[in-house]
Amino acid sequence: MIINVNQSISIHQIRIGSIGNSSVFQIGSAGVIKPLSNIYNTGGFTGPVPSPRPPEQRQPFAPLPPFVRL
Q: Torsions phi, psi of 57, nearest 5?
């Protein structure tokens, strides 16, 4: 059986709360989504991860705009 799907999608705004390692974000239709998970040690680490710093000692990754509540 052959199924043809024609669609038109308009997205004005989209918010994604969080995305994890196994998340799937899909807009539209797909015939098959095959799960795939790869873990790579690109940093060449050989030991455990160091303990995180307390929140007051952390710096943001990028300058953050002022928070405006809508």
A: -100, -5
Question: DSSP letter at 55?
Answer: G
Structure tokens at 5: 């799907």
Separation between Cα atoms, residue 59 and residue 52, nearest integer Å: 12
pLDDT of residue 24: 73
Do residues 19 and 25 touch, judged by C-beta distance below 8 A?
Answer: yes
Give whole-number Cα distances, 27 to 9, 24, 44, 57, in Å.
8, 10, 36, 39
Write b or e for each residue in 56-66: b if 16 or more Cβ atoms lie within 10 A of its Cβ, otherwise e.
Answer: eeeeeeeeeee
Question: What average pLDDT does the chain have?
Answer: 79
Token pair 């994604």 is found at 16
